[in-house]
Specification:
Elements (H helix, E strand, L loop, with lengths): L8 E4 L12 H20 L3 E8 L4 H10 L3 H18 L6 E4 L6 H17 L3 E11 L4 E3 L4 E4 L6 E3 L16 E5 L6 E11 L4 H10 L5
Parallel strand pairs: 1-2, 2-3
Antiparallel strand pairs: 4-5, 4-9, 6-7, 6-8
Helix pairs in contact: 2-3
């Protein structure tokens, strides 16, 4: 129970939408509306609440949209970030700021902070390296991963893209995609091995139990 007699400060960060289009109902009904309701409740009890979000400019879907719309990725991000802000205002959802941590004014600082965080994790032995097989296009000189890759889910055989199946909810490695197919213009494909960094999880049972308690499906 939140006490109204002791004012507190809260900082909310809603899940970050990809700036390759406007918001959809999943964004609104999910993270933004719920957080807005909580923020309004806390403010009504006298608490100081700040709600700041950003757009996920790292998503490869941004690059796909940039190719389709024939304009730079930074321009795509800025255009749809402004559209997202407009959508939130139209629905009277109060988000103080929606930033872009790559192309915005804090881009350089965010990159430096991210590199420092990775170096810290590595120094503490909390990072492990996993070698993965991914498709590479010689014609476009890019790895066919994320939004560039389509095919069928290895778990339920439904149409899927990247590393996630919206039909059954499973995540999988790019090399596990059934009938992998490039989405746009990639040819002269070959499999290459790349090293990827992952957080080291020593006690998976404890993590699984925490997720179950949070309401995640098993």
């Amino acid at each position: 129970m939140v006490s109204s007699s002791i004012p507190r400060r809260y900082f909310f960060v809603p899940a970050t939408p990809t700036p390759n289009g406007r918001l959809h109902l999943g964004h609104i009904a999910g993270p933004f509306l719920r957080m807005d309701m909580m923020a309004r409740f806390l403010r009504s009890r006298g608490h100081d609440v700040r709600v700041i979000s950003s757009v996920d400019s790292f998503d490869t879907a941004v690059l796909v949209t940039a190719v389709q719309e024939r304009r730079p990725a930074g321009e795509v991000c800025d255009f749809y970030r402004r559209q997202i802000v407009s959508d939130l205002k139209a629905l009277d959802i109060d988000v103080e700021e929606v930033t872009d941590v790559i192309h915005g004014s804090i881009g350089s600082q965010h990159a430096a902070d991210a590199q420092d965080a990775i170096r810290t994790l590595v120094s503490r032995g909390l990072i492990e390296t996993t070698t993965e097989r991914v498709l590479y296009s010689k014609s476009t000189e890019r790895y066919v991963v994320g939004a560039w890759l389509t095919g069928r889910c290895p778990h339920c055989d439904a149409a899927a893209a990247g590393f996630f199946c919206e039909a059954c909810g499973n995540f999988f490695r790019p090399e596990a995609m059934v009938a992998p197919t490039p989405r746009l213009g990639d040819s002269e494909l070959e499999w290459r091995e790349v090293d990827s960094l992952f957080l080291r999880i020593d006690d998976t049972h404890e993590l699984e139990q925490s997720m179950i308690k949070a309401g995640a499906s098993d």
